[in-house]
Description:
The complex is a heterodimer. Chain A is an alpha+beta fold. Helices cover 39% and strands 27% of the residues of chain A. In chain A, the strands form 6 sheets. In chain A, strands 1, 2, 3, 4, 12 and 13 form a 6-stranded mixed sheet that branches. Chain A is globular, with a radius of gyration of 24 Å. Chain B folds into 2 domains: 3-51, no CATH class; 96-385, 6 Propeller (Neuraminidase), CATH 2.120.10. In chain B, the strands form 6 sheets. Chain B has a 5-stranded mixed sheet with strand order 8-3-22-21-23. A 4-stranded mixed sheet of chain B has the order 4-1-2-7, with no helix packed on it. Chain B has a 4-stranded antiparallel sheet with strand order 12-10-11-15, with no helix packed on it. In chain B, helix 1 (3-16) packs antiparallel against helix 2 (18-50). Chain A binds chain B through residues 262, 267, 342-346, 357, 359, 361-364, 367, and chain B through 1, 6, 9-10, 12-13, 16-17, 19-20, 23-24, 27-28, 31.
Amino acid sequence: MTLKVGIDFGTSNSGVAVYDGQRVKLLPVDPKNVLPEVIKTILYVTRDYRSSIGQDAVEAYYRDNVNRQRRYVKQWAGEIDVRGADMHYVRDIYVYVDELKPGRLLQYLKTALRKPEYQGTQIFERYYTVGDLAQTYLSLLKRRAEDILGDSIHAVTLGRPVKFSETPEQDHKAEDTLRQAAHEVGFKEVDFELEPIAAALNYEQSITKPQNVLIFDFGGGTLDIAIMRLGDPHQRKVFASGGVDIAGSDFDRAIIEKRMLSHFGYGRVKYHPEILEMIHAIPDWMALPELGTPINRNILEKAIHSGIAPVRLKALQGLIYNDLAFTFYNRVEAGKIALSSDGATIISLDDKDIALWELYTRHQFETDIQHYLIDVEKVLLDTIAVSGLEPKEIDAVVKTGGSSNIPLFTEMLTRIFGAEKVKASNTFSSVVAGLAIKAGM
Amino acid sequence: MPFSNKIDEWIKEAETRPESALMIVKLIAKRLHDLTERNEELLAENIALQNGTRVEEYQKRIVHLEYQLDLLKRRFGTDDVTLVEPTVHSAESSILKMLTYNANGRILRIEVDPNTQSLGHIKNDMINDREPPRLLGVPSNEEVLLLFTSGRVSALAVSDIPSLEAGDAWSWEQAALPDEPRAGEFLACIMPLSHLPLSDFFLQVSRRGCVKKTMTSMAQPILANHYLGKGAVQKSDQAFDLTLCKPKEHFAFVTQEGHLLGLDVDGLSYSAEERIRLTATDFVVASFLTRSDESLLFVTQTGKVIVRESNNLELSKSPLAKGQALISPARLEQGVRFIGAASVQDMDRIAVLDATGSLTVHLAEAMTGAGSIEAGGVILSIGLIPAEAGKGPNP
Lengths: 441, 395
C-alpha cells in the first residue's frame, strides 16, 4: 500500500500528519520539543556535513557555538578584472574565514524559496542551492516520520502559501524547487495544496452543516486567506484566496528595529559609519552572523577604548562574537508571543558582556506594528471583495498560525465579522492536519 | 528613545488595560531587586579595589602565571614559548622512557620500544627489598618531582638520568642516584611535572589512606624550600603517592586488601585527612585520577586482572569510609592481594615487574580481554604507559 502523508513545510515550524479516513494522526517528529508534533524549520549543518533539524539542530548549535573560539584566516575568494582605457590588471580578492566555525545554522528556509535574489549559500566547501537546503530538511523529516510509522512513505501533499511571491514566475519557481526537493528525497508522488485551504479541510471535520468560512492563516512567513464554502464534500467551493508577505518574522524585526537597537549603541554612536552599519544589520538574521570579522572587531575595540558608548558597543561585540544572535532573536520572538496573552513582558539577554533588559508592553507592540495592521486589513477586505460575499455572509472566521493569536489582529477580525464568528483552531497543526486529509482523499 | 517616553508608554498600557498595571509593577520591582543586588556586588568590588585587596590578589596571580610560564619554558627548553616550538621537540619527546625506581632512590631509565614486549631484566633479588620497585612511563623531555617519605621534594629532568638500552640486564648498582634519601627517609614516588601549569592542586595520598590537597599556586615556594609535607596524620604513616589534578576531577585509591575508594577532588581538605578505615595490615597500593571514558584495572600478585567501569566508581562523601570491596573474604583468606591498579583506556600499555626481575609491557586491552597477565613469578609492580605518552610534548 502506498503511504501518503501531509507535510506542512512552514517558515518557522513544520509538521507531518497522516489520515486514515477516520481521523488525523499528527506525528511526534520532534520528541524534544514542547509540542512533539511541531518541529522547528531549522537546519544545522556541521563542518563534516552532518545535518540535524528541529530541537536537535538548536541543541547542536548551542553546544558547538556559543562563546566558542574563533580563528580567522585570509582565504583567496577570486579575482577582479580591472580594465581601463589604457590599462588592464587583475586583482585578487581575499575574504576572512573563521576556520574554527563548527557548523552553520539555517532558518527561514521557506522564505529563501521565495526570494529571487537568494540562490543558495556556501556551507564550508560545498555550495547548497535553495533546493539542496529544502531537500536536506525534508529528507531528515521524512526519515523521522518513517521511523514513527515503521513504513516507507511514497507520496506527500505539501502545503504552500497562496503566494510564494508576487511575481508568477518566482511563484512557479519556488513551487518547482520544493517539488523537485521532495522528489529527490524519495517521494514518488508530490502534490500541493494551499495552506489556508488545508486549514479549511481540517475545520470542515468539525461542522455539521454547510458554511461560508474565511480562513485567516497568519504564520511566521506569510498571511494567507481563503474564503470557501465548506460542509458538503461534494459542494466545496473556493470563492477567493489571497495573501501578503507579512507575518511573524516582520513583527520580530519591527521590535528589534524600534526597541532593541538602542541597547547596542543606536542613538549614541553618530559619526562612525562602520559601526552604524553593524548596528543596522542587527535585525537581519542573515547578515548578523557575517559581521564577526577581525576588521569589525578592531573597529569596535578602538571605539570602546575611545569611550564611545563603551557599554553598548561591548554588548554589540558580545552579540556578534559570542554567537548570541540566535538566542537574541529567540528572546525577541518569545517576548512577542508572551504579549498575545499578557499586557507586559520582559525581553532580556544576559551574557558576559550583555545585560539587556527591556520592559515591553502590548501597547508598545501594537504601536510598533500598527502600519502592518493597515496592510493586513486591506488584503483581507480585498479578498472578501473578490469572493463576492459581504462580511455578514461569512459564517465563520477560522484563525490559524502563530501570528493569528496577536490580539491586534483578533480585534480587527472581531470588528469586521463580530466576536461570535471568530474561531480559533489549533495554532500549529490545523494546516498539517488538513494536508493529511487532502493526502488521504 | 528617552527613558521618560518609555515610562509614558508603560502608563499608557496601564491606562488601556488596568490589569497590566500589576504586572508592570511586578516586573519593575523584580528588576529593582536584581539591580540592588548587582549594585552591592559592584560596591564590594569597589571597596576591594580601593583598599588594595584586589591589587594584591592580581599580583599573586601574576607571580603564579610567571612561574607557570617559567615551567613551560623549561619544559620546552626555550626562552621563547611559541606555538611552533613544541613541534621542534616532538621528535625527542616521542622517545618514551620507563623509570623504574626503588625506595633507596635508585632510578633506572630504560628506553621503551613500542613494539617490544620485554624491556629487560633487573638482576637483584627484589622480593626481600623493603618496598617493591615502582614503575613510571614518561617522555624523555619530561621533568619529574621526587617525593620522599619525609615530605621532602626535589625536581629533576628525565634527560639528566643516564639512559639504558632495553633488553639488557641491570642491577641497582648501575642505576642513577640523583638525590640520595637522607637518614630515615625513602623515595616514596616520582610524579611527572609537565602538567603543573595546567593543574590546580597537588594531591597526596599516604600509605594509610590520608589525603591532602595543596594548591599549585604554592608550587614556587614548595620547590624552592624542597618541602611539600608527608600528608599523613599518624607518625608511623608515610607519604605514598602524588598526583596533579584540577577541580571537579575524581580521584581514587586502592588498598592491598582490595578496597577501592573514590573521592571528589572538590570535596578534599587542604589538610591531611584520613579518608578510609583500614585494618591493621592493609595499606594503599595505587592511586589515580579517573575519567568517565576509562576502565579501572586492578592486578593481583598472581597476575589476575579485574576490570570495573569508572562510571561505577562510588564517590565517598563520609570522612571515614570503608570503600568498595573488590576481593571477596574467601579470596582474601586464600592470600589474594592487589599489587597495583590504574585507570586505563584500551590502547594504553601496562609495564609489569615480577619477582624474577623481568620487566615486560602489555596492552591494556589484551590484559582486560585475557583477564590475567603471564609473568615469570609473583608480580611486584605495575606502571601505566598512556597511549598518548610519547606522541607529543603533552603526554
